[in-house]
Amino acid sequence: MDLFDTPVVRQGTSCLKWDGLAAHFGPTGDLLPLWVADMEFPAAPAILQAVERRSAHGIFGYDFLSPDYYDAVVRWMARRHQYTIRREWITVTPGVVTALCFAVQSVTMPGDEVIIPTPVYGPFFRVVEDHGRRVISCPLIQAQGRLTFDFDTMERSVTPRTRALLLCSPHNPGGRVWDRDELEALADFCRRHDLAVIDDEIHHDLVFHKKHLVFSTLSPDAANRTIVCTAPSKTFNLAGLEASNIIIENPAVRARFRDLIQRYHITLPNSFVDCAVQAAYNESEDWLDALLDYVEGNIKLFADTLRQALPKLKVVIPEGTYLVWVDFRALGDPDTCRKLLLEHCRVAPNDGREFGPEGAGFFRFNLACPRSYVSEALDRMTAGLGSL
């Protein structure tokens, strides 16, 4: 646990979460950042060693991904997710958001509609609208304290121009790990309306006590209509290396997706991707299991403390991800709550409005950090909000 307990100073490294505070929140002083979804932990030792060996070579020219890279991805998906894939189904992109842009263009035309269950990760809206497509927002509903799909609204929203659905699985920001019956109902909905499924699974390794189901494993039809977007970035804190593995079984869709990759000339990885991802998937599974235990402890501390000290706040306990979605609406309007957090508590989570209108009054807290940070945030929030 020492690896996760020890704070690492990130200021002065062009770190978005810390060095970008003032640009995002204004003058910050001692603001504690719990926003950007990366971790405050060093990467697993095997990854660090692999990158150090590669760095020692001293030449950072043009590289390609080795067969061993693809084998590592194939084995990981089989071992961790019981999803048997072929190497030729994998296309590597610089990130999942980049892949979402190409996916939207691969399965829709300008003017087409894309269903997005909301609230959801903010770039979902932009990857649709920036390419001349139209977002159809279908708000999720609360059922027994958990977010779930509103199929009645989704059915009413479909038009002849609806061509695709963007799925976040596990869900960001709500932390849902969708149950089989929910995903099967969603697969049936997409089959009946002939919708492509763009499936963002960037958090699929970060799951607590549940089984994550890759959408393509539900049925042959689901596999044929789905673009599965995966990455080691959230799992192993490698976002800065920019490597995502996009799995597309349908050969026609895969060809269109790869044609876009070629046309934008983003086919070469940086010099550290091959070795780092192999070290992650082949040698760092024990590190991931320890990480999950640690983050779950952070979440429990955070939720239990708020429940006792600030009962007006409603914490959505995540089933996956290291993100916690908290309802502040009992304390006032969204601007008031944001001001309370920033000025009175000196804590900086993500404002829920970044995830769509349904997020107004909610805030997303990133708890992939040393427990001392969580304790400090709780002390500040209790002191700043306790009188309310």
**Helical amount among residues, as a percent range?**
40-55%
Main beta-sheet strand count, sense and barrel state: 7 strands, mixed
Average predicted local confidence, pLDDT: 97
**Proportion of residues in extended strands:** 15-25%
Specify the number of helices.
16
Rg over C-alpha atoms, rounded to the nearest angstrom = 21 Å
- Described by the principal axes of the CA atoms, the overall outline is globular
For this structure, the quaternary state is single chain
- Number of extended strands: 15
Q: Strand pairing plus helix content: what structural class?
A: alpha/beta
Structure summary:
The protein is α/β, with parallel strands linked by helices and 388 residues long. The chain has helices at residues 2-5, 16-19, 21-25, 45-57, 67-81, 96-107, 123-129, 151-157, 180-192, 220-224, 233-236, 251-263, 273-283, 285-309, 334-345, 371-385, and strands at residues 32-33, 90-93, 113-118, 134-139, 141-143, 146-148, 162-168, 196-200, 226-230, 244-248, 314-316, 323-327, 347-348, 350-351, 362-366. It starts with a helix and ends with a helix.
Overview of this protein structure:
By secondary structure, the protein is of the alpha/beta class. It has 16 helices and 15 strands. A hairpin with a 6-residue loop joins β11 (314-316) and β12. α15 packs across α16 (371-385). The chain starts with a helix and ends with a helix.
Give descriptors for this structure.
16 helices; 43% helix; 388 residues
Task: Give the topology, please.
Elements: H1 2-5, H2 16-19, H3 21-25, E1 32-33, H4 45-57, H5 67-81, E2 90-93, H6 96-107, E3 113-118, H7 123-129, E4 134-139, E5 141-143, E6 146-148, H8 151-157, E7 162-168, H9 180-192, E8 196-200, H10 220-224, E9 226-230, H11 233-236, E10 244-248, H12 251-263, H13 273-283, H14 285-309, E11 314-316, E12 323-327, H15 334-345, E13 347-348, E14 350-351, E15 362-366, H16 371-385
Parallel strand pairs: 1-13, 3-4, 3-7, 7-8, 8-9
Antiparallel strand pairs: 2-10, 5-6, 9-10, 11-12, 12-15, 14-15
Helix pairs in contact: 4-13, 5-13, 6-7, 6-12, 14-16, 15-16
